[in-house]
């Protein structure tokens, strides 16, 4: 029995509310159970210096957890003193979203995705990627409506889900009680049924090739559901 009472292939309840920030070109609040992340997309009509005159667009991301996102208060991170975890997650979000972008079609501009965790209960990086794509899509829609680009540069929705081995069972969408006790923990980033990135590690017990394949099957099943939620949110 999972602590939440869910079935092994059952995700937490997912909701995506769009247009939650009146200033950002794209925004949403994604909730996966008790994990809540605010995602905003900001368009800049120039690219970083290393991309100048390349004809290619750029998508990058920043990630952070608010001080009371967890059960005890954390110190607010300054950009100059970000933890290794924060830096690793925001790089993951950026490269995951870029994998689903035709950067030629985007044109020489940058879109920054900001992911701020309001409340954390496991899977914050996965929720950030999933919600980040929704914010990105809404920003791209504004570029198309303004005729600043002629075709949609977003190839496929990008979503992510955690799956792992808890109490000897392969389970979908780990919450914090499961994540903290999992023998194996994996994060799967996917688009159109294809893999972008897999982060998987033993946290106390080894795992077999068959178990890895089983977790991938669970993640694929879950990402199909997340894709449907994303497309419904931006419809």
From TrEMBL:
Question: What GO molecular function terms would the record report?
Answer: 3'-5'-RNA exonuclease activity; tRNA binding; tRNA nucleotidyltransferase activity
Q: What is this protein's function per UniProt?
A: Phosphorolytic 3'-5' exoribonuclease that plays an important role in tRNA 3'-end maturation. Removes nucleotide residues following the 3'-CCA terminus of tRNAs; can also add nucleotides to the ends of RNA molecules by using nucleoside diphosphates as substrates, but this may not be physiologically important. Probably plays a role in initiation of 16S rRNA degradation (leading to ribosome degradation) during starvation.
Its recorded reaction(s) are: tRNA(n+1) + phosphate = tRNA(n) + a ribonucleoside 5'-diphosphate
The record describes its quaternary structure and partners as: Homohexameric ring arranged as a trimer of dimers.
Q: Give the enzyme's EC designation.
A: 2.7.7.56
Q: Which InterPro entries match?
A: ExoRNase_PH_dom1, ExoRNase_PH_dom2, ExoRNase_PH_dom2_sf, PNPase/RNase_PH_dom_sf, Ribosomal_Su5_D2-typ_SF, RNase_PH, RNase_PH_bac-type, RNase_PH_CS
Q: Which UniProt keywords apply?
A: Nucleotidyltransferase, RNA-binding, rRNA processing, Transferase, tRNA processing, tRNA-binding
| UniProt: phosphate binding residues | 85, 123-125
**What SUPFAM superfamilies does this protein map onto?**
Ribonuclease PH domain 2-like (SSF55666), Ribosomal protein S5 domain 2-like (SSF54211)
**This chain belongs to which protein, by name?**
Ribonuclease PH
Q: Which organism is it from?
A: Flavimaricola marinus
Per the UniProt entry, what are the Gene Ontology biological process annotations, in alphabetical order?
A: rRNA 3'-end processing; rRNA catabolic process; tRNA processing
Q: Which family does it belong to?
A: Belongs to the RNase PH family.
Domain Exoribonuclease phosphorolytic, chain residue ranges per copy: 10-139, 157-222
Top-rank taxon: Bacteria
